[in-house]
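**User:** Here is a favour to ask of a fellow structure person. Please take any protein you like and set down a full record of it. No explanation is needed for now; the record alone will do.

**Assistant:**
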Amino acid sequence: MTDTRQVVVVTGGTRGVGAGIARGFLAAGARVVVCARRAPDRPVEAAGAAAEFRPLDLRDARAVQVFFREVAADHGRVDALVNNAGGTPFGLLADTAPARQAKVVELNLLAPLYASLAAYDVLRAQESGGSITMIGSVSGTRPSPGSGAYGAAKAGLENLARTMAVEWAPAVRVNTVVLGLARTESAPLHYGDEEGVARVARTVPLGRLADPSDVADACVFLASDRARYISGAALHLHGGGERPAFLDAASVNH
């Protein structure tokens, strides 16, 4: 019997938000392939199923092309790609070597471009087409001190998605999830101890950081038939945004 479940690729799907996205698709019944340079410490599992791990350096455009051809050959097709891999260490622009900043741009903008191009070659050949979802960041919508190259790359990624949505329609839908502050195993590196995380969470109007499952729900929706007329969109997943600093600085009660 032919397996009719969706085949979904999640880049950087071995930990953090990426693993949460992979678990969301597994829970929805999809066959999930996750890729990263290193294997996860433990399998990414949900609903009695496990994601398939394949090693891949997303910065190697040729290797990325081979990866998608092999996934399509082994599973019969690819239905959705979630470009989640990315990130950056903290570093002020003037204190960081240009080569390091270039690597941040490479990982957060060029790597998703390579993956999207390789996935498009597979998706456009299928009668059912498919979808691509970029995991963006609020860092690309406002100044991003300490992560300037990252913010610039994420801004470019959202623009790239809108262009792909026009060029690749109607076969392939392309959208962006613009993610705000999220709680993962690396949250203490960014926000400090539990009290620090709690203080940061209180700055979010909904009163908490995003959980990886929140991101997963958005990605599953955008890849589903219920989002069949959504393309070129940016879904802001930030709990209401960030409270403007001037409100706390002003002497008037708000």
User: Anything to note?
Assistant: The chain has a mean pLDDT of 93. The longest strand covers residues 130-137. Helices lie at 16-27, 61-75, 98-123, 148-167, 187-191, 194-201, 212-223, 245-249.
